[in-house]
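Human: Cast an eye over this sequence-structure pair and say how the chain folds.
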Amino acid sequence: MTSIEHAPNRRVLTAIAAAFATALFAAACGNDGGDAPNTTSDSEEQTAGFNEADVEFAQMMIPHHEQAVTMADLAGSRAGEEVRALSEEIRDAQGPEIEQMETLLDAWGAGTGDGTDHSGMAGMLSEEQMSELETAEGEDFDTLFLEYMVLHHEGAVDMARTELDEGVDPEALELAEEIIAAQESEIELMNEMLGAGEPGADPASETPEAGESDGGTAEDGHSEH
């Protein structure tokens, strides 16, 4: 047989080999492509684990809590026994919550918002109001502390409710629920204490005057825990 007669056979074998190689390559690509969507899906789920509302909630609640802790510290040397005991509970609850929110922000890759002006936040006391509290003593301190802390707690409850409406992170939502439950209970207790201190007085009608007396920010919001 001549070389011319062998040529068609070689071309056929070459074509078959090429087709087989192409089929193997396509199968391999198909397997690789099947794993890719799962990886993308996992990444998207992680990104969707928190949103802007969660970040804002933590960034705003941290300084809000920090001011409440400062108020509670003042009660250590100025308040009566009942108010001092309440202030210790507030400090013990909100200190760990601050750390929890800082940890959340770190996990989200977000800053704490240090340097931001938080004076307009609901329930935040103005510098004048804080100075007034710092100089008060005895029963005057107790009354002022309770009035201001009610406003502070109400502001925190408002902020926590916004988180429940708009946030998505499970841990942040759970924290918001805990803040609402604890601070609403303390608001009720503090209003009772104010009423007991001034027989016949209506604590609900008196509380806003604490924020109105100096035009501070507490009148614009309700406060926190």
